Amino acid sequence: MTDFTTIESGGTQIAVRKDLRIPMRDGALMAADAYHRPDEKPRPALIALSPYGKELQAYSLKMPGQYRPSVLWDGCIEAGDIARVVNEDYVHVIGDIRGTGHSEGEHIGNYNAGGVSLGEDAYDFIQWVAEQPWCDGNVGMIGTSYFGSMSVLAAAENPPALKAIFVNGGHYDFYETTYHGGVMWLMPRAAREGRGGDSGWAFTDGVKSRMLEKYSKSEIAELVAERLKDADVAAWPNMFHTLTYPKNHEAWFDIVMNDLDGEWYEERNPITLAENIQIPTYLQIAQGRGWTMDGTIELYNTVQGPKKLDVLAYPPMNSRPFVDAHDEMFRWYEYWIKGIDNGVMDEPAVNIHIEGSHQEATGTEFPPKQVEHRPLYLRPRHILAEIPEPLGEEWAAPESFTQLPMTLTNDTAMISWSTAPFKEPTEMMGTGAAHIFAAIDQDDTNFILRLWDVAPNGKRQLITTGYLKASQNELDKERSTEGSPVHPHTSKTPVTPGEINEYIIRIYPFANSFQPGHKLLAELSNNEPMSDEHNALLPPDAFHLPIGRKTTTTVYRDAKHQSRLLLPYTLK
């Protein structure tokens, strides 16, 4: 007698085991659904874990993958193509992490489940699945974004049944997930609260605030009052609401209250934990996701077992429901789980799609080619040039822009600089740096740098970005190298208004070949446009917290103040 029901999706018969109850080591029961072909044959399992709700993931059975700017795109339907997984003869097991969906237990804080590592829960979940009669004892992981991060946390615990992981579009350094260069990104809010194209977390009474657990009511009041002194936070109604009514948004409240890096983020940082990963790991990330590319490359360098890195073509957002990248995933699992020698391990470990030329670069590390960091100097008349400005400030006068708060305008003030059209293909690959000499008339602001490839017809594509909170300009001197600055983001130093400072902005990894006739355009601003060629491809809330005060930024680019980009040119 079977203990499953059968459904049909697109002509495929699928057995469904609903509401499995999986015990954790502390006694909490986690909820899961399992999908497989309608028979009792044991199969390898691909496990998907998140706080978004297992019921939501079943939308892959009834809705084709949607791409931005489709209004049906939902960033939380990320567990994978159930019907495809079943047809490939795996069991697709989709579970709710503790304190969410139909699972028991408390989820306190962002990635710290009531003091229990999510990796420990994943270990128990994986081992339980492996022992079921419908599983042959071999397990992999599946899913993008949050699901990908859960794969890394699981692998770091080394459960014996987990044979390999394939991670698409994960996010790893949890501070950098929300604070890019110290500048708050609002898309994680959408993933938790369910705003702007995301269903959000499947909240239950088991989701709690770590800050509220740790501090007394009076202490919280003092901490909130201090946080609201940040003019950017105080000016944004959603931020004020989150801090005033924290029990409505527990996980997001904790993130907003912790705007500096440190122990709170590091204790569950998958990149730190990845030193423990011995199993085969395939990491995949799309171009245009600068900070996630940065974390993916760092994770690749940290993992100890057999590994591959695949940097995909632009655009930055794959479909929801998540149905992309399955072909390569099944090749990976055929080899490592089913034991089929399909040649996947005979191919280069690193494969990089180069925008512009649309060629591939392969090797064993990123960047796979030798590079040389060369400067492009910011010059008057909006010019980017290989030669620095020879004139002093009295002739090469500084240039200013004034950003009004969004209570007064929706316009984004910025300065831009452009190269002359390239005469021959010019390839760049790796991280970079922007050395900007500037003065502001406030004690803090955002520096947002965006680099574009502009075609002769004016069509442009975003290549990479850089972000820096002016008060968090301190460098980690031991980790920083030329063309790859690293900021610890563990403290703030208010800026002296009117003082000229050199701000060193990390330019996130990229790979682009500027074709003849194309230009490189650099834009510097304090805010970013709500919608343009790039942002229209992202969910509506995927922008950074705007500044809350009228701010004038003056940029110096003269013989004494050699503002410049330092970019990774590949060597022929």
UniProtKB/TrEMBL annotation:
<feature type="region of interest" description="Disordered">
    <location>
        <begin position="473"/>
        <end position="495"/>
    </location>
</feature>
<dbReference type="Pfam" id="PF02129">
    <property type="entry name" value="Peptidase_S15"/>
</dbReference>
<dbReference type="InterPro" id="IPR029058">
    <property type="entry name" value="AB_hydrolase_fold"/>
</dbReference>
<protein>
    <submittedName>
        <fullName>Cocaine esterase</fullName>
        <ecNumber>3.1.1.84</ecNumber>
    </submittedName>
</protein>
<dbReference type="InterPro" id="IPR050585">
    <property type="entry name" value="Xaa-Pro_dipeptidyl-ppase/CocE"/>
</dbReference>
<dbReference type="InterPro" id="IPR005674">
    <property type="entry name" value="CocE/Ser_esterase"/>
</dbReference>
<keyword id="KW-0378">Hydrolase</keyword>
<dbReference type="InterPro" id="IPR000383">
    <property type="entry name" value="Xaa-Pro-like_dom"/>
</dbReference>
<dbReference type="Pfam" id="PF08530">
    <property type="entry name" value="PepX_C"/>
</dbReference>
<dbReference type="GO" id="GO:0008239">
    <property type="term" value="F:dipeptidyl-peptidase activity"/>
</dbReference>
<feature type="domain" description="Xaa-Pro dipeptidyl-peptidase C-terminal">
    <location>
        <begin position="330"/>
        <end position="566"/>
    </location>
</feature>
<dbReference type="InterPro" id="IPR013736">
    <property type="entry name" value="Xaa-Pro_dipept_C"/>
</dbReference>
<dbReference type="InterPro" id="IPR008979">
    <property type="entry name" value="Galactose-bd-like_sf"/>
</dbReference>
